[in-house]
Fold this sequence. Notes:
This protein has helices spanning about 15-30, 45-55, 90-95, 110-120, 140-145, 205, 220-235, 250-260, 265-275, 275-280, 305-315, 330-335, 350-355, 355-374, and strands at about 1-5, 35, 60-65, 70-80, 85-90, 125-130, 150-155, 170-175, 185-190, 265, 285-295, 315-325, 340.
Amino acid sequence: MKVVIAIDSLKGSLSSMDAGNAIKDGILKAVDAEVIVKPLADGGEGTTDALIEGMGGERISLTVKGPLEAPVDAYYGYLEESNTAIMEMATASGITLIPREALNPMKATTYGVGEMIKDAIRRGIRNFIIGIGGSATNDGGTGMLTALGYEFLDADGQPVGFGGQCLEKIVSISAENRLAELDECHFRIACDVENPLCGSTGATYIYGPQKGASDDLLPLLDSGMQNYGHAAEAFTGKHTMEMKGAGAAGGLGFAFVTFLNGELKSGIDLILNAVDLEGSLKDADFVITGEGRLDRQTAMGKGPAGVAKLGKKYGAKTIALAGSVTEDARACNAAGIDGYFCILSSVCTLEEAMDAERTRKNLSLTAEQLFRLL
């Protein structure tokens, strides 16, 4: 028997690999099987840590310019075998780095993201997987591009500065000081939104309010984004403002596609490909997946649904385990999960349920009993 485990982290309890190994322990108490544990993430928060732990990566720490320019401690992962950096833009320019009352998309910058990329390039890294969720910014990625050597200039030929407030001032763009090594780099971007750069469904109007933009600022920010977008298209010769995902992370998706030849990919598909889950599934009998809470949203493109899709492709039965299961989780069956189970073994408080050691035991016990039955 061959079993492949790819379970998302149970936030507040166990990492993806900790959860997977707990399940493995339970299975091996019940049957003699080949059990493979793979990390699972969807390109959002926790992806870097999951892949560092699950793929034997290195954590690289550095200090960068934060979203409001004050220094912040950031980090990214390095996978030596594939010469790949795993990054989350939120580490450098995320909304959680700013107190809610200080959120300001007029000033917030992605410069720190560019500093992370620049650091990796100087270490010889040429492949990048970057999650761009959780941004505090609406600068179209101009901060990141500035850190990489691009210059956004006003009518007097002077740099326009940082933040969404600078976009309306852009008259010309220069790549004279752009890092030459960018030509050797491959950027794969985990992006699960389909918004264009501008307009009523674009970066500013859809995501600006949660980043601190008041109603009266939205037209100004969007107008600036329009100006930047047209200048970028004229400079590069690409027509990408209407591309799905261009508006992700305050226009950072647009910057990657337009200036850095980046590929916008479904987060879960990108990560499953990176960990080569498909290669392990080709002769598997069972796949175990899951997350902290299994519900209808799980079936809508989240990690366990991606795992189930691959499981179905190779005829493996897919089982999901979760700390809690809602009534509408039945949608997961239609998404390819053959059966799902709540791991709680007794009535307890939420705090008790999320205790790491209790969660580990519950996962192991549930897996053991399932495989005794199977």
